[in-house]
Amino acid sequence: MIKKFYTTIASWTGKWVWLTMISTIFICSGRDLQAQESLETPYQAEAVIVTAQKREENVQDIPDSITVLDELNISDAGITDMAGLSTYVPNFEFYNFGSRWHSQTYIRGIKTLNNSEPSTGLYVDGVNYSKSYLFDFPLFDVERVEVLRGPQGTLYGRNTMAGVINIHTRTPDNETRAQISGTYASYNEKQIQGHVQAPILKDKLFFGISGLISSSDGYMENDVEGVGEDGRHKDGQAGRIKLRYLPAPKWDITLSLDGQHHEDGAFPFRRTQRNSFVTAGKLEADSPYHYSHDFDGTSENDFWGATLNTSVDTKLGKVTSITGYRDFNNEDFIDSDFSPLDAARMKYVLQERTFSQELRIASPGNKTGPQWLAGIYYFYINSDKERTNYYQSAMANSPSNPFAPGTGTRMTQSKGTNFGEALFGQITWPVFNTLDITTGLRYEVEDAQMDATVFYTPEGGAKTATQQPYQESRFTALLPKLSVGWHFMDDQMLYTTVSRAHRSGGFNDPNVGGAPYDEEYSWVYEAGIKSGFFQNRLTVNICGFYTDIQDEQITRFDEYNQSYLENAGESHRLGMEVEAGWFILKDLELFASFTWLQAEYDKYTDPVTGEDFEGKTTFGVPDYTYTLGFQYRRPLWRDWNGFCRAELAGTGRRYFDDSNTVKEPGYELVNLKLGLEGAHWDGYVWAKNLFDRHYCIFENVDRGMTEDGEPLTIGITLSYRF
Length: 722
Known about the structure:
By secondary structure, the chain is mainly beta. 8% of the residues lie in helices and 57% in strands.
């Protein structure tokens, strides 16, 4: 393993050297006098200020692994969603499979699926999006994204075992700004988005409005004639309104209202050689980017919410209140046998409402000595679910049909509530002007309840109901943190961190692995270095970590492809992350990231087959990822600049089953973007997956169903600022 590791490092180093040489030759061959002067004139790279620890700090001074992308980074990289974001964040993978609300999120190999409590916390303007099916929505009107890797239980609480994603949308102020942009790309993809912000009363009242409209025909083709639209088609709209009020010099009040509506194709899964229809000789396996379903799967989402963010500076410290409400409605209707046979369909309806309130106080920003904060947090989640299985004519004689010969429907209705409270605090002690010691603690309590009823309706028969036992659980957690940062030189810091986090337990559908599942806990041990050179034009951050996980929650599937959870016992994540950025010239940047990860079960035996998975790699986790790239802006004529950006993103092997028998080999994707930028107009042509590399994002090995990653996509984007 060690020899292979170093061989791989050498190979990637060679690729990086060649990319650097080519880009440098290209730039130097056409460098004009202005560029030469910029090379000879030193400049100071600006500090990146974040609120990852709920106070404003330089990201290089925080003893945690954090990646930050600001508004310009997001625009330059063409990031429009979470999948795009994952290319630029080490040890972060995001795959949308099935439908928009059915996605996989990984940070440091700790996964989240939509049927479980998330392992990663998503916060938008300080408000928690409580479930992973809220994650995969357009990123628009974004000012900054902060991705914190590793457990964040002390400050953020439940469901932050893997890390936290903080999204900050644009805040209106005295400056009047507006922009509109349009994109047209492969598969008839169309998108228009824009924003306007301006003061209503100077220094007092400001407003901002932003919106997005998008659609796409999709890249998966259904080979069954006359069955709706192709898979992966999309049609959606989103909008946000912000009002900001400064009633007094020390007060800041912002009200945000947002909403979204999306209608997408759902679950265009294709059959592999492992599919039971294929092994029985009844059907053939589907070719890449093709599937054959007799029913057009659809997914419709409505999602809206409100946020009230209030802060006031007092003599004691800064008091912040964040109040959030989210309302999410989803309806999926799919071909659940994933074949051209009229066998089974499934309809899933979800309504969820979430309320949260955080109140905290932090020491004054200009205060010397210990920096502290303390707070309380409350949340309430109410959800109504309805799952209906339709047994069609092709299942009339199947042993999986719960009815007598013929057909029928089985509908499960469930109601669930989760509510909890937390107390938390953290303090950083400066020692000898070079050493910072941070300690923190959080205590939280969560209560969960669920009751469900199952209805059976045979074709032509009467409906019968079965009331399921009422279920309730209480989860408590004590989540400490200790970190030490040693600033041994200017712009150089060594740090080490120990912290604990947890993921909440819950209840399964009574007809799908009905037993409840327990909480999942983790401890992380991390050490790293953050360093800046040449007035921070070159930054290099390196860290190593070990995460010990108890009672890992594992997703399994029943014979109807319906998922449920169980606890696997013990596992670990051992890894290394390297992240670097180098501004060779003021407008020429080279960037790179690399991760190596070992994700293995330490104690897990299949409760059905008795197979022991000790030492096996966990589902879907790549053993390495990397990104290499450069970006350059070149003055051309008057106010016009040329723009060039190229990236190579690699993903290592992944296993799609716990036995490690089905492997997705490693692959590389190349992205390219070229453009012209003016004082008001910008125009770009771009390509993603330039060499049309085929890869799979997911496979249900038991069912032999998979979905392909996005092929070559070419597009053009035009923007106008006024």
